Amino acid sequence: MNSVTFFIIKCLCVYLSGIGFGLIVNLPHKALNIAGFNALLGWLVYDVIINTWGGLGSANFFGGLCIGVMSVLIARWKKMPSILFDVPGLVPLVPGGQAYNAIKSFAMGSYQSAFNYLSQVVWIAGSIALGFIVAELVNKVRLRVERDLRKLRRKRLKKF
């Protein structure tokens, strides 16, 4: 199998994971498709960064940032809460493999390996959370700029 086919299969699986988790958390059916695309977009940002210049922390940060910003924009467009798009979008970024390996290493008595995996879990989860915090800040700044621009337009219209 060549690399393009493998990449397309990965993209399809990520999209379906977003939809599948949306079904598990009982997402409204009209939001499932967009939740899948949000998951795909966040994962594509992650994949580009992890394969070009970044490590686990920066890739998960920017993936979480992208999911957070897009969730707010999609929520305004669809007139739904943004959390509906946040949760399914995060599924591809969750460090499930590292968490599993940490627990397995603890059970096998390999504590050094377990702490290594556990530190990766904490690093990834923290990076995703920080991405969401920055996404919320970006949204607050965007709303403030929009409000200030509306005030400025009103002032200009009153002058004429």
From TrEMBL:
Annotated compartments: Cell membrane
Keyword Membrane belongs to the record: yes
Transmembrane segments: 6-25, 32-50, 120-138
Keywords (A to Z) from UniProt: Cell inner membrane, Cell membrane, Membrane, Transmembrane, Transmembrane helix
UniProt key word Cell membrane: yes
Principal location: membrane
Pfam families in the cross-refs: ThrE_2 (PF12821)
Family, as annotated: Belongs to the ThrE exporter (TC 2.A.79) family.
Protein name: Threonine/serine exporter family protein
Organism (species): Lentilactobacillus raoultii
